[in-house]
Specification:
CATH superfamily of the largest domain: P-loop containing nucleotide triphosphate hydrolases
Strand content: 15-25%
Strand order of the largest sheet: 10-11-7-12-13
Helix content: 25-40%
CATH class of the largest domain: Alpha Beta
Distance between the termini: 43 Å
Number of strands: 13
């Protein structure tokens, strides 16, 4: 908390008011810490405190859980419900149907910029909400073949990437096999972007080995070229962001390959497009392709992955098989709190 010299706000009064707000809403943060040093969840609390400090009666949350742990999501939902009970108006903008069911009283569904309907959340199912969002019945049942991982396609051995002041990646080691989806879970900013860039050859790692199909992969970008040729009927730049994303997925899957690297493959897409991409990834896995899924969406990781690795501050801190662990435990690992799993 900083004083504003010659301003109209005194530090002591501001601190007192904010402390009262923190106690009232159970939104506690260190007022003397730099925002850059706070966790993502704590930074979000700061933004909420700013709204409450201004005595806002209408609070708008736009995709607020995108980079939160399950524990932080639970806490935020309770906070929003508390605001509503106090008579404040809370607007939650999200594509996550589970959050709508947990937090909202009413839901207005938009599709292509038009209002489709406004419904009582208790009176509809998640499937009904999804169908209104996309305008058709969705097949949301995923058909997985029996998990029988075969030979290794990609291996990382003690891969390290040094930054200016600290290691961005620290001794990363794992394998991806044919016939599996390996999911990497973690809060945004813990080295996932750099990991994908290192694997694809877009960034040079400091030490360690990356092996693709038993060959040292020193220049993987030649094998996985992300540059697009001209479209058949339209240029990619003329497409919407979602259609560009779907076009890229279709293009990469059609290329001859043993490994598919999916980094945030459904970010910003609607429920229908998400379902389509998930089905394509499962099809790849069932056809004995190796799939590496890096996503900040924990629900996506749990829905698709045969194995889950958790990354925290550039290190792999946990490894689990499908069904071996719950979201709460993964959330603790994501936040750096280890928990023994029996």
């Amino acid at each position: 908390l900083e004083d504003l010299k010659y301003g109209f706000i005194t530090k002591d009064k501001a601190r007192q008011k904010i402390t009262e707000i923190m106690n009232q809403y159970n939104l506690h943060v260190d007022l003397d810490e730099y925002v850059k040093n706070l966790t993502v969840g704590e930074q979000q609390k700061v933004e909420i405190l700013k709204m409450l400090y201004r005595n806002s009666d209408i609070l708008i949350f736009d995709e607020p859980t995108a980079v939160l742990t399950p524990q932080e999501i639970d806490e935020l939902i309770e906070i929003m419900k508390g605001f509503a009970k106090e008579g404040k108006t809370v607007i939650l903008i999200t594509h996550k149907l589970e959050e709508i069911k947990r937090a909202a009283n009413k839901c207005t569904i938009l599709r292509r910029g038009k209002v489709i309907d406004t419904v009582d959340v208790k009176s509809v199912t998640k499937n009904q909400l999804a169908e209104m969002m996309v305008g058709r019945v969705l097949n949301q049942k995923y058909e997985f073949n029996e998990y029988q991982p075969k030979e290794k396609v990609l291996s990382l051995k003690n891969v390290t990437l040094k930054g200016k002041s600290k290691d961005i990646l620290k001794d990363i080691s794992f394998d991806v096999h044919k016939g599996e989806i390996l999911g990497i879970a973690g809060i945004d900013g813990n080295g996932q972007t750099e990991l994908v860039q290192v694997i694809t050859g877009m960034m040079r790692h400091t030490s360690g080995e990356i092996i693709l199909n038993n060959e040292y992969a020193k220049d993987l970008v030649q094998k996985y070229d992300i540059r697009s040729a001209a479209g058949i009927n339209s240029s990619a730049r003329s497409m919407s962001g979602g259609n560009q994303q779907k076009a890229i997925v279709a293009r990469e899957i059609e290329k001859p390959h043993d490994l598919l690297i999916a980094f945030q493959p459904t970010r910003g897409l609607d429920v229908g497009a998400i379902n389509n991409i998930h089905q394509q990834m499962i099809k790849e896995r069932n056809n004995d392709k190796a799939v590496l899924l890096v996503s900040f969406e924990l629900e996506e990781i749990f829905s698709l992955s045969d194995r889950i690795l958790v990354i925290f501050e550039g290190q792999i801190v946990g490894e689990f098989l499908r069904g071996q662990v719950d979201e709460e435990t993964i959330g603790l690992y994501m936040s750096g709190t280890r928990k023994e799993v029996e």
